[in-house]
Amino acid sequence: MATKKWRRELPLHLMVIPGLILVLIYHYGPMAGITIAFQKFIPAKGFFDSTWVGLENFRYVMELPDTWQILWNTVYIAVMKIIAGLIIPITISLLINEVGKELIKRGVQTLIYLPHFLSWVILGGILIDLLSPSEGIVNQMLGYLGIEPIYFLGLDAWFPYTLVVSDVWKEFGFSTIVYLAALTSINPTFYEAAIVDGASRWKQTIYITLPGMMPIIILLTTLSLGNVLNAGFDQVFNLYSPQVYESGDIIDTFVYRIGLVDAQYGVATAVGLFKSVVSFFLITISYYLAYRLANYRIF
Amino acid sequence: MHYMTSSRRAFIIFNYAFLIGLSLLCLLPLIHVLALSFSSSAAATAGYVKFWPVQFTTNSYHFVLKKPEFLASVWVSLQRVSLGTIVNMALTVLLAYPLSKEVKAFRMRTYYVWAFFLTILFGGGLIPWYMVIKETGLLDSIWALIIPGAVPVFNVILLLNFFRGLPKELEEASFIDGAGHWTTMWRIYVPLSLPALATITLFAMVGHWNSWFDGLILMNSPDHYPLQSYLQTVVIRRDLSLVSQSSLADLANVSDRTSKAAQIFMGALPILLVYPFLQRFFMKGIVLGSVKE
Prior knowledge:
Chain B: It comes from Paenibacillus sacheonensis. Chain B: This is ABC transporter permease subunit. The complex is a heterodimer. Chain A has helices at residues 2-32, 46-49, 56-63, 67-97, 102-112, 120-130, 137-144, 159-183, 188-196, 201-224, 233-239, 245-248, 251-261, 265-294; strands at residues 39-40, 51-52. Chain A has 14 helices and two strands. A two-stranded antiparallel sheet of chain A has the order 1-2. In chain A, 38% of the residues are buried. By secondary structure, chain A is mainly alpha-helical. Chain B starts with 5 loop residues before the first helix and ends with a helix. Chain B is an all-alpha fold. Chain B has a domain at 68-242: Orthogonal Bundle (MetI-like fold), CATH 1.10.3720.10. Chain B is built from 14 helices and no strands. In chain B, α4 (68-99) crosses α7 and α4 runs antiparallel to α10 (194-210). At the A-B interface, α1, α4, α5, α6 and α8 of A face α1, α4, α5, α6 and α7 of B.
């Protein structure tokens, strides 16, 4: 009996195995490679023969003067992005919902998530040109209003906010569509009943539309919790420069520079491990909350 | 419709203006870059170009399309997108089918699902990832861009949930007719999920086209860079060491700004071409993620 069952399941195992092997090598392999964080790692010696240094790499990082600033930058930028990335799409989906003309509704929906599908290399190239203080069109327009050119990408006072605004610009359309999809599932008879009762459009929005969106709002809010240490490597890497390291350097760009540019592998892995561990707890909590509050199960 | 209060009318006018402005905000930057790429270098440098080419010329495109490094990187990208998407999709289907089974039918299912799901929660970080790719001998080969990311775990979960939404009777009928798992997967599940598969395929293609960081660090020689990595070095980092001597001579006739604009636009062009399809499948993709049994 047991062998018969096994025979019937064999094809299923065969299907899983190629993918499983690849995941073991390229996802679990790096997890095993975390040992580098506790070594003075020298690539020529490999994982096994490099000297063990205990927590030395962690101590070294904590004594670096920039570390706390980088941690702060990461959380500050990420949290601003999370908040703006929740409020703005909700507002805009409510506004789009008020549009009666189907053509305009469709047109707006079509255009606003175009930037979502472009890479940060392309968008970075565009933004660097648009925001240039000497020839960029944004500063040109500001000039017509009598405002002096602003170096959005080169000043600490502006850089983090430029990151947040440009990230919202790239992603708001995508989230807006998700909220709009949720709106279509609201039962239309609710609105009919409200109209009979004499509720204004504003009252309908407050008492029917918003509560109808609540499950998806709660879901996306809880899931975004996992991103508190993700300030957006792709974006920052393509927009920052040494002038704005003080306000714009984040954990991921820091790991890249000390690891792959300065070849301090042990130190970089230690910083990466710190981020992975904290993120692990955040993501786990966010999935748990999403499950409890919004009944969300990923599989 | 019936009567409308004046405040309601004011709101509607404001709303239309706001939303149309917002849409333009997403479109105009691209139009500006397109206009720059077709303008003369003098007009671009002087800042005359807004949203329409000034002193129309295709010089920038002639310059870019003659650069051997640019063309080489386009070729690498095309290889990467086609090979990478095939590998991604084959593994996605192969994993989603068995993992969509009930524990009764596949006792190891839960363990396997967790093994894949854990990789979403935790990772080794950049350096160990790089070292594993180096140790497995993939550096500087096109496979470095395909094999490490060959299993798109999130897409597997999407398709797995979709498979679970299909009626169980079809599978039972197939088994009664004597079909095995391979036949059932290929003849029943795959044909029934074509829209879902099309969605995931498009997303895999866009993902491969847009990736730039892996190319940048896993390729030793710039001739092996895919287009986005090449653009990263030339447009963002302005690294002129990658530009050949003949191109440097040509650069005298084409401004840095217009040639960059042309390259940015060409990097975005494939996405713009598939955008109508992306859009059509996009809503389905959202629904796809929410299908649960």
